[in-house]
Amino acid sequence: MIEKIQVFIEKVRNAKSIAISGHKNLDGDALCSALALMKIIELNFGKKATVIFDGNVPRDLDKVPLRDQAVFHRNLPENAKYDLYILVDYGTRKHLGEIEKYVNAADFVIEFDHHFNDDLVGDLCFDNEEKAATSQIIYDMIRVVGFNIDQDIVDLIMLAIITDTGNFKFVRNSDVFKDAAKLVDSGADITHLINILNNKEKKTVLVESKAVSEAEFFMKGRLAIATIHNEDYKKLDGRGEIILSLLGQIHGVQYVVLLKEHKENLIGISFRSRKTPINQIAESFGGGGHLCAAGAVVEDTLQSVHDRVINAFKGM
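^ that's the sequence the OP posted. Answer follows.
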């Protein structure tokens, strides 16, 4: 890792322009990791990096530190080009959205990610599938180098961990707790940070409640499927994590699937499992992700995707 960090430092030091992005439709880990890196570069290299995003940013992330400094890609100059592009928590190339053109045009690309990906985008990769959040990889680098950090960076790294672990519910090893403890010792107030995430609009909560109340159950109650139709998808404001979480709390439910009708014949699928790996099911739909939390986007009718999902779980 030290050799890679040396290259990272050299590339940042020599770059005249730097951009940072996560996957399309940012979640807490992608946004907070990007903003934390932006501040690290500013504090330690005296340079201003631009955080660029495509898609929606959930309203519950509006109050995270430095949120107002993230730039929607359509607000960039038409000829925008960057010497160095840093990707965080992007998953796979197809999750980049409209920012892919800026990534392809960059002279050098660095990535920090905790997702499995057999088609890496970065020229220099800091990837670790064992981490619960991408921000932990950045935090490792901070400690190895001894980078200067401030309260914003501490809070952003903790927020990324909180959101990607579902308030520490989805944890595979003790590293995340060790990192959280160090961040608390550095001034992170977990109660305060969780409270600033409680910032949803009423219409979003009502859509989430409707999806949960109308969920279907299969395989003798072991599989729960919720659906967000297109007219409600516009109100969802995020990926529907609360829907997945609530259905996953039901006794006997082992698998939860959320179908999101982005538009006609374009369906997003989120898969969750209590313990049995379901990433291969996501891959069969052209997606991927973690062992027990994965997703895909499919060009097909909502009813067809619904039926295909049920068939995919047969025999499990």
